[in-house]
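Service request form, structural biology core

Requester: graduate student, group of Dr. S.
Request type: structure prediction, single chain
Budget code: on file
Notes: please return the result as C-alpha cells.

Sequence provided:
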Amino acid sequence: MMTAVSTMFWPILGCAALIAIAGLYSVMLTGNLIRALIGVEIMIKAATLLIILGGYITGNMGLAQALVITLIVIEVVLMVAANGIVLRIFRNDTSISTTTVSRLKG
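Core staff response, request fulfilled:
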C-alpha cells in the first residue's frame, strides 16, 4: 500500500497545484465576472482533489467522500447566489466587467 501511495501522491499533488494555479490566474487576471466565477469553480475542484487524496493516504475514504459531498453542495449554493448577483449587475449595466462592480452604489 505504501508504494502505491508514494507513487500516486506527487503526480496528483502536482496536478491539483496546477489546477489551483489555473483557477487563481483566472480569478486574478480577468475582467469578466463569469470567468472569475469559473476560476473559483476550478479552485474548488482542486481542493476537492486534495481532499480525496488526503482521504486515500490516511485510509479514511468515507470521511473524505462526506467532505467532498458537503463541499459540492456548498459550491452549488455559492455559484447560484454569485450567478444571480452577476445577472442583476448585467441587467443594471448591460456589462459584466469587473470595473462596473466598483462603480455600483447602494
